[in-house]
């Protein structure tokens, strides 16, 4: 990262030197100010794109694999895992009950068991923990 910053500083310094070398006052009388504004904007845009590409981390394109060890250590049942997937999808208790074919009270029981096994108090915490443990994609 420091090399990228130093390289961009060098390019900017070189551009400033080039402007002085061309005798800025004589050069600006020949063309309209808008041309120089466009040229400088294009240089900064290109430099910004280059720095952005260099500094943006690339994610590896590996397929998602469920962490079976985390599932076993938490002791989640298949039904609790499906309830967790529905929670991650943003479904309400009634929607989860409809999609799983159970009553809302059963869903509440599964969620209560899920929260106690995971050691969380809110559905957002449960989903974040599941993603951190690679139980959910």
Automatic annotation (TrEMBL):
Q: Which residues form the HTH luxR-type domain?
A: 67-134
Q: What keywords were assigned to this record?
A: DNA-binding, Membrane, Transcription, Transcription regulation, Transmembrane, Transmembrane helix
Transmembrane feature ranges:
34-53
Q: Give a single Pfam family match.
A: GerE
The cross-references to InterPro entries, in alphabetical order and at most eight, read: Sig_transdc_resp-reg_C-effctor (IPR016032), Tscrpt_reg_LuxR_C (IPR000792), WH-like_DNA-bd_sf (IPR036388)
Which Gene3D superfamilies does the UniProt entry name for this protein? Winged helix-like DNA-binding domain superfamily/Winged helix DNA-binding domain
Q: Determine if Transcription is one of this entry's keywords.
A: yes
Asked if the record carries the keyword RNA-binding, the reply is: no
Q: Which PANTHER family does the UniProt entry name for this protein?
A: DNA-BINDING TRANSCRIPTIONAL ACTIVATOR DEVR_DOSR
* Name of the molecule in the record: Helix-turn-helix transcriptional regulator
The species is Hyphobacterium marinum
């Amino acid at each position: 990262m420091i090399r990228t910053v130093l390289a961009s500083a060098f390019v900017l310094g070189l551009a400033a030197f080039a402007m002085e070398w061309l005798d800025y006052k004589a050069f600006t009388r020949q063309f309209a100010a808008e041309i120089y504004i466009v040229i400088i904007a294009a240089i900064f845009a290109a430099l910004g794109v280059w720095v952005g590409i260099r500094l943006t981390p690339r994610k590896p394109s590996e397929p998602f694999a469920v962490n079976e060890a985390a599932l076993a250590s938490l002791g989640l049942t298949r039904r609790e895992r499906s309830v967790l997937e529905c929670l991650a999808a943003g479904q309400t208790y009634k929607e989860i009950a409809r999609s799983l074919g159970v009553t809302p009270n059963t869903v509440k029981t599964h969620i209560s068991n899920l929260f106690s096994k995971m050691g969380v108090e809110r559905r957002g915490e449960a989903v974040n923990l599941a993603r951190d443990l690679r139980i959910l994609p």
